[in-house]
Each structure stands twice: as structure tokens, then as C-alpha cells.
Structure to design on (227 residues):
């Protein structure tokens, strides 16, 4: 088993965080290509059969444009932070119908001291939130089967924002009110730097995604998507 990322990956990302300018990046573009982009694309390619074993409806697309890998350039149009580049690498493993309808995704984030994997749907539109909440109310046992399972709670944590008060139309004493108050329906786990830079990263990602499959299956069902 070979590694994908190396100390040079994290060295580049740390240096980019200190020198987040177009001039610096262009001077070090070769480092980006060699130590972050190319190994990430290789990992995405290698994950294709693993992801298909989890769900035939999810895609690991290694293309540089339009694929799973996030662009290194930031969209600064609506941000007060005008630094041009992300100081991390990320990949989204998307549903085959994600270009037609909102759909949950698997995600991998590579950053020194802050790497993680996750799954779910982040910042969904109000109508999507409503559909997921209604599905939880109508199918509480299915949600609790994985979300309350000791193994799931030991390995993963739910992430994202929640409402301060119950959403309109839901009683404050509902047994799953904490879940119904969620604005994001995502969960994940941190990845140690040693795992990210070591030879077992692929296995760790596959195991992590497989453990999150029940969440993804449930969210897909709530949105009438195949899993």
C-alpha cells in the first residue's frame, strides 16, 4: 500500500496559508500540482470501486474540472475575506442525480491538523429541510436505528447549525426535537495527520464512508432518491 499525500502536501498548505497571494501561488503552482492535486485525483480514482460497493448511485470523479475535487480558488464575491486560495484540499463524492435535484454527498477534507471525512447535506434550502424533518417525524425508528446506535455515536458526531427554537409546527417536547432543529444534516469524524499521510488513508476513508451509509440512505429516502 502506497501513500497518497506526504509531508510536502502539508508543507505546501501551511506555506499557502502564510502567503495567500496570486503571485506566491503561481511561483509554487508546481508544488500544488505535484503534492495536492495529483495525489488527490489518484485517491479519487482508487476510491471509485470502493464507493460503488457502498452505493451504485454515488460517483468518485477524478476529473480536474467538474469532478469530485474542489477547485483551489476561493469564490470571494460575497466574502469579506478576499484571499484567493483555499488552504485545504477537498473532494465531494456526489449522487448521480445531484445536478438535477438536491442530494446528500460524501466529503473528504485534507488540511494540516484539521482533516476529516463526512456525509450528509449541508445548508439545504428550506424546502429540503422541511422534507427531511417530515421524514424524521414519519420514520423515527429508522433515524434512531443509526443515529442513536452506540457504534455510530462513538465514531461520528453530527455537525452543523441548529435552530434555537423548534421549527414552526413541531412541538418542543417531540422526542427527536434536537434532530428536528437541525439546519444541516451532516455527520463525520476527524482524521489524524498520520492517517492522511500514511498508507492506510484509502482504507480509513472507505471504512468511514461505509459507516455513514445509513445516514446517507435515510437522507436519500427522505428526498425520493435511490441509494
Amino acid at each position: 500500500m502506497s501513500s497518497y499525500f506526504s509531508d510536502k502536501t502539508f508543507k505546501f498548505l501551511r506555506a499557502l496559508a502564510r502567503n495567500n497571494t496570486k503571485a506566491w501561488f503561481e511561483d509554487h503552482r508546481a508544488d500544488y500540482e505535484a503534492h495536492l492535486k495529483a495525489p488527490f485525483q489518484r485517491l479519487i480514482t482508487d476510491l471509485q470501486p470502493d464507493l460503488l460497493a457502498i452505493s451504485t448511485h454515488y460517483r468518485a470523479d477524478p476529473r480536474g474540472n467538474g469532478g469530485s475535487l474542489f477547485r483551489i480558488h476561493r469564490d470571494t464575491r460575497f466574502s469579506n475575506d478576499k484571499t484567493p486560495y483555499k488552504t485545504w484540499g477537498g473532494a465531494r463524492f456526489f449522487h448521480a442525480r445531484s445536478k438535477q435535484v438536491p442530494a446528500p454527498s460524501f466529503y473528504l477534507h485534507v488540511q494540516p491538523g484539521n482533516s476529516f471525512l463526512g456525509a450528509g447535506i449541508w445548508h439545504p434550502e428550506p424546502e429540503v429541510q422541511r422534507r427531511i424533518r417530515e421524514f424524521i417525524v414519519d420514520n423515527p425508528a429508522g433515524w434512531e436505528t443509526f443515529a442513536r446506535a452506540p457504534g455510530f455515536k462513538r465514531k461520528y458526531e453530527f455537525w452543523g447549525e441548529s435552530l434555537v427554537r423548534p421549527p414552526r409546527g413541531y412541538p418542543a417536547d417531540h422526542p427527536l426535537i434536537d434532530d428536528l432543529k437541525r439546519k444541516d444534516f451532516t455527520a463525520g469524524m476527524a482524521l489524524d495527520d498520520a492517517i492522511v499521510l500514511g498508507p492506510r488513508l484509502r482504507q480509513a476513508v472507505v471504512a468511514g464512508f461505509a459507516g455513514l451509509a445509513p445516514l446517507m440512505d435515510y437522507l436519500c429516502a427522505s428526498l425520493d432518491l435511490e441509494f
